[in-house]
């Protein structure tokens, strides 16, 4: 049976009444009393204000119920007995401090057709008149006609109310805006429901619509917009179709989903899906989902084979959305959002897009999908408040797409036919005290919504047809009709030689592999160009956000005493004294005690003297290496004053009485140790972020994983204990009562690795911000259980393969592995459920074993596996976790025909950090790694030697035009970004195509050519270095025919490459510059 939440009822009713009194003359139109009745249910209009108000107050709709609320806080309810009983707990528990004084119930009476009840209500309405003025009765004016036609209690009441108003002059005023204004700021419970509704819409879009759309495009299916919209609506009504455990009773669609493509677009919320077939060009989708009657909305535009103009305009749209989000802060008027969009377009040279903006950029949402009085228009003076939720909907409509804009698009692509297009992106945004919270998290970057399905050249189809004709023209002599097998065997005979089917398969496989490599190289060249553009924009945004960060790097002046009278009292003129409190050392110079801050002292020693005690103090000075232990501030001070200041390098003191100097030596050493320890601690805690407190789950069962081991450990001890999942995070409690809390909001990636070939099953958390474990900060926390103890002793005696004891051990190990894998898997599912229940996004990744490879990241050969977002090794310590988002480029070193292994360097986007390295990767894994990197849209290059990355990164960090393809004069062309590391560049790619066309050697001729080449290489290897260098130089001049100007330009280019590559042996640099063509290493 339904029950009324009394506390929530009075809280929200009091909020409504207070707003009614405070803003009576504005949004409430000066009403003296409020009629909050609800007419009959109307499924055609689920957003009637009266129904939404009842849901907000009571949690349920109360149809055919009359509610009267006066300014003095007295309330009357006319309804059936069942509804009065539902509200009766509120009448019996009116809070003392509530503005609501009393609740009076009038039971529906069939004897007199409620005439007496109506008279009572009208009398209370009459008493609401103030100072004899004309009475103003507040009601939902637009719903009155429907109430009259519905009959029941409200039909006769509406007719009587009209008659009474005519006889006793009164005015009916609309209170819809006042009710909406009272409900517009959400409480925490409402925000939680809004977030869940947004997550539902996000999941339906990501796992429902996008997956189906990709299937349609891949399979080239024919489907109408209406059919696809119906499919999406069915998922919203039944989320179990995408494996969401949500009750059907709690969800429904806000509106019929809107799918548009093919050039006919309408970005208004009132648009409709048509019966036209879906076209894979610019596809627009909008869907809305309700969870517990709270609404959410999300819109995305997907680009298939998009021309450059469409992609560039979409990037502008995203940047404009960021500008709009920045304006959505408490205190700003709603019109600031529209003005921010216009200002961004005007300041960035996109004025022509201003007229393509819609009339509004969104609306407030909640129980009502679209609150008409809270639109993001250029004139709305309402103010943003914390707790409001808006649908921010930005877009451009009726954008022209000329023939020139479509010229680069493949003729097969449907976008070739578009003459106009539109773009739309909508997200749910909650107004918070700081930055607005975007609750629909689905990716909307260009890489998330772009698809390229017609990248191949136009001539490929013709080539295939020609090949088919050639095959058909080969006729088998004397082949009987219908005997295809015999015909093929005769056709394979060339000049009396029968070709092997195995060799034919090997040749076909090799050809496929070569085509795959060529296709990968082409994709890498395009990817390099796009990544260079993206990095330029990222660096530009980073520079804009940097602000006053440079001031933090300035040196801090040392000041221990402001004046001499602040010196300690025990200071003597000719003695060395240490002030431990102020971290200073007083040294006598010409009889005067001079204070030196402890951070200026590099070291202190006591040399052995003859009869006297010596104390030598060395200071940090310019022109000498300061060392790794030097305080960071002292290094800055030395650099600051080095150009013009004089430094004291060392001071030596001699005394016949060694007591004072010995004591000073000990105190200085101790003080330096304390200061160094404190500085190291500050550096450790510098980037720590204060974590929220753990909210422990109460009154329900807590997911628990017992007897797990944590890494890293506390103080060098193996740390075992239990892991529990609570409302906002997880807590690990060791057997020694040591506690580590891991908050859901601080988890960047969660990884579950089952035990297959390892000795442990584990879950691993890669954190956004480091946490302190013991005395050190860590970005990675892991919990595992060993299947077999790694330190288990192996019996030296030989055992038979049929030994029953060994077979039992293996069986127990298999059962244990299966049991623990299932336990960890179930725990991950429970943690995921708890996190989602409390509004957190937490998904566990499982490493892809098929893509794993062996390598050496930390002086030990381990198995490295990729996950969805990382490249990891989690079984050995230290952990190897590389976030792919932070990888700028990957370079393969020692890639030669002779080596059996190569090295991989992953360059960090932050050039202040060292690149990651993985050494000794087997050559057989290179192609699969490069395919994976290409699929992940990460650029790579390869070379034959190890590079000096410290010098390369320093050069790149100092080059402001590194990702640009021109020098500082903006005219001279250069290789952009990491292209200078490419072993085979664009020219090689073009030459390779020509060589493929010109090659007409038979298999025997190629083998002879390779044998001759190997003989020539053996001969050339016997030539001395001097002759070889001369020969190579002459050969270059003869083959290329360079004049002096071209030779100088080539030499300058090689010098620039050498400077980027770092310290390289001149002979190796010269040899590597003589690149071999790709056709098997042959020279022509």
Automatic annotation (TrEMBL):
This is FACT complex subunit. Belongs to the peptidase M24 family. SPT16 subfamily. Component of the FACT complex. Residues 1072-1084 have a biased composition (Basic residues). It holds the Pfam family PH_SPT16. It comes from Fistulifera solaris. Residues 853-943 form the Histone chaperone RTT106/FACT complex subunit SPT16-like middle domain. One of its GO terms (molecular function) is nucleosome binding. Keywords: Chromosome, Coiled coil, DNA damage, DNA repair, DNA replication, Nucleus, Transcription, Transcription regulation. Residues 478-487, 1049-1071 have a biased composition (Basic and acidic residues). It is found in: Nucleus; Chromosome. GO terms for cellular component: FACT complex. GO terms for biological process: DNA repair; DNA replication; regulation of gene expression; transcription elongation by RNA polymerase II. Residues 4-179 form the FACT complex subunit SPT16 N-terminal lobe domain. InterPro entries: Creatin/AminoP/Spt16_N (IPR029149), Creatinase/aminopeptidase-like (IPR036005), FACT-SPT16_Nlobe (IPR029148), Fact-SPT16_PH (IPR056595), FACT_SPT16_C (IPR048969), FACT_SPT16_M (IPR013953), Pept_M24 (IPR000994), PH-like_dom_sf (IPR011993). Residues 576-732 form the FACT complex subunit SPT16 middle domain. Component of the FACT complex, a general chromatin factor that acts to reorganize nucleosomes. The FACT complex is involved in multiple processes that require DNA as a template such as mRNA elongation, DNA replication and DNA repair. During transcription elongation the FACT complex acts as a histone chaperone that both destabilizes and restores nucleosomal structure. Residues 455-475, 987-1048 have a biased composition (Acidic residues). Residues 454-520, 985-1084 are annotated as: Disordered. It comes from the Eukaryota.
């Amino acid at each position: 049976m339904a029950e009324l939440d009394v506390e929530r009822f009075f809280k929200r009713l009091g909020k409504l009444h207070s707003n009614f009194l405070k803003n009576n003359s504005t949004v409430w139109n000066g009403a003296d009393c409020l009629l909050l009745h609800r007419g009959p249910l109307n499924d055609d209009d689920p957003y009637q204000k009266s129904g939404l108000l009842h849901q907000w107050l009571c949690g349920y709709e109360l149809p055919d119920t009359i509610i009267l609320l006066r300014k003095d806080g007295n309330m009357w309810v006319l309804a059936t007995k069942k509804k009065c009983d539902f509200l009766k707990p509120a009448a019996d528990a009116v809070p003392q401090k509530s503005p609501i004084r009393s609740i009076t119930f009038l039971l529906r009476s069939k004897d007199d057709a409620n005439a007496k009840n109506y008279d009572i209500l009208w009398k209370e309405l009459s008493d609401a008149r103030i100072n004899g003025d004309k009475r103003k009765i507040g009601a939902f004016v637009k719903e009155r006609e429907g109430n009259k036609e519905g009959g029941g209690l409200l039909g006769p009441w509406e007719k009587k109310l009209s008659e009474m108003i005519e006889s006793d002059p009164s005015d009916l005023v609309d209170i819809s805006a006042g009710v909406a204004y009272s409900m517009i700021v959400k409480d925490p419970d409402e925000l939680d429901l809004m977030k869940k509704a947004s997550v539902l819409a996000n999941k339906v879009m990501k796992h429902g619509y996008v997956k189906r759309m990709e299937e349609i495009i891949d399979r080239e299916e024919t489907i109408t917009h209406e059919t696809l919209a119906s499919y999406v609506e069915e998922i919203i009504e039944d989320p179990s179709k995408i494996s969401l455990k949500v009750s059907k009773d709690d969800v429904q669609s806000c509106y019929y989903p809107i799918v548009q493509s093919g050039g006919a677009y309408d970005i208004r919320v009132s648009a409709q899906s048509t019966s036209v077939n879906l076209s894979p060009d610019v596809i627009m989708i909008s869907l809305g989902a309700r969870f517990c009657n709270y609404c959410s909305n999300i819109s995305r535009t997907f680009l298939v084979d998009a021309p450059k103009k469409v992609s560039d305009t979409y990037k502008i749209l995203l940047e404009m959305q960021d500008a709009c989000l920045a304006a959505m802060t408490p205190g700003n008027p709603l019109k600031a959002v529209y003005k921010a969009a216009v200002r961004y377009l005007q300041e960035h040279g996109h004025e022509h897009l201003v007229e393509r903006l819609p009339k509004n950029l969104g609306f407030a949402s909640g129980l009502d999908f679209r609150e008409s009085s809270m639109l993001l228009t250029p004139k709305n003076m309402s103010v943003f408040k914390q707790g409001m939720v808006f649908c921010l909907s930005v877009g451009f409509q009726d954008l022209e797409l000329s023939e020139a804009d479509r010229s680069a698009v493949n003729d097969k692509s449907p976008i070739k036919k578009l003459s106009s297009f539109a773009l739309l992106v909508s997200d749910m945004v909650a107004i918070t005290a700081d930055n607005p919270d975007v609750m629909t998290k689905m990716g909307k970057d260009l890489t998330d919504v772009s698809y390229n399905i017609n990248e191949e050249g136009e001539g490929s189809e013709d080539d295939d047809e020609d090949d088919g004709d050639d095959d058909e023209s080969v006729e088998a002599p004397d082949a009987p009709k219908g005997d295809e097998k015999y015909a093929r065997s005769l056709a394979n005979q060339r000049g009396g030689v029968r070709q092997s089917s195995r060799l034919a398969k090997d040749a076909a496989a090799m050809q496929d592999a070569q085509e795959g490599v060529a296709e990968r190289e082409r994709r890498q060249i395009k990817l390099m160009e796009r990544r260079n553009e993206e990095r330029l924009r990222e660096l530009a945004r980073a520079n804009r956000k940097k602000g006053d960060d440079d001031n933090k790097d300035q040196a801090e002046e040392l000041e221990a005493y402001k004046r001499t009278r602040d010196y300690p009292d025990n200071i003597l003129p000719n003695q060395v004294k240490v002030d431990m409190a102020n971290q200073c050392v007083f040294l006598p110079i010409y009889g005067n005690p001079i204070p030196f801050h402890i951070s200026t002292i590099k070291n202190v020693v006591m040399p052995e003297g003859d009869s006297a005690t010596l104390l030598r103090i060395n200071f940090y000075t310019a022109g000498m290496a300061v060392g790794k232990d030097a305080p960071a501030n002292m290094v800055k001070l030395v650099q600051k004053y080095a150009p013009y200041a004089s430094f004291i390098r060392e001071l030596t003191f001699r005394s016949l009485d060694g007591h004072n100097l010995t004591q000073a030596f000990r105190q200085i050493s101790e003080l330096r140790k304390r200061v160094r320890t404190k500085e190291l601690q500050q550096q450790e805690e510098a980037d720590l972020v204060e974590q929220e407190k753990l909210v422990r789950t109460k009154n329900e069962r807590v997911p628990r994983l017992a007897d797990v081991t944590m890494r890293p450990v506390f103080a060098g001890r193996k740390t075992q204990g239990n892991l529990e999942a609570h409302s906002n995070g997880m807590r690990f409690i060791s057997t020694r009562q040591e506690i580590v809390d891991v908050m859901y909001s601080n988890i960047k990636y969660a990884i579950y690795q089952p035990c297959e070939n390892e000795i442990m099953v584990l879950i691993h958390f890669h954190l956004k911000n480091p946490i302190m474990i013991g005395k050190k900060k860590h970005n990675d926390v892991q919990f595992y259980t060993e299947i077999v103890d790694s330190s288990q002793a192996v019996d030296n005696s030989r055992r038979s393969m049929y030994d029953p004891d060994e077979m039992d051990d293996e069986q127990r190990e298999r059962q244990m592995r299966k049991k623990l894998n299932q336990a960890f898997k179930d725990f991950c599912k429970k943690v995921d459920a708890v996190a989602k229940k409390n509004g957190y996004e937490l998904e566990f990744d499982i490493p892809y074993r098929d893509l794993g490879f062996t390598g050496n990241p930390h002086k030990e050969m381990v198995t490295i596996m990729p996950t969805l977002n990382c490249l990891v090794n989690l079984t050995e310590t230290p952990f190897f976790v590389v976030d792919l988002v932070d990888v700028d480029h990957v370079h393969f070193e020692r890639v030669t025909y002779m080596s059996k292994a190569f090295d991989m360097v992953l360059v960090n986007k932050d050039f202040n950090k060292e690149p990651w390295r993985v050494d000794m990767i087997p050559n057989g894994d290179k192609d699969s790694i490069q395919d994976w990197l290409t699929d992940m849209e990460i650029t790579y290059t390869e070379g034959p030697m190890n590079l000096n990355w410290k010098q390369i990164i320093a050069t790149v960090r100092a080059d402001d035009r590194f990702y640009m393809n021109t020098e500082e004069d903006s005219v001279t062309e250069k290789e952009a970004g990491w292209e200078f590391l490419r072993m085979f560049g664009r020219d090689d790619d073009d030459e390779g195509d020509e060589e493929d066309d010109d090659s007409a050697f038979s298999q025997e001729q190629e083998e002879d050519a390779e044998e001759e080449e190997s003989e020539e290489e053996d001969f050339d290897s016997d030539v001395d270095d001097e002759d070889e260098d001369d020969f190579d130089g002459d050969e270059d001049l003869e083959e290329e025919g360079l004049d002096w100007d071209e030779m100088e330009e080539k030499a300058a280019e090689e010098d620039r490459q050498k400077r980027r590559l770092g310290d390289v042996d001149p002979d190796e640099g010269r040899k590597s510059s003589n690149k071999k063509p790709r056709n098997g290493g042959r020279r022509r």
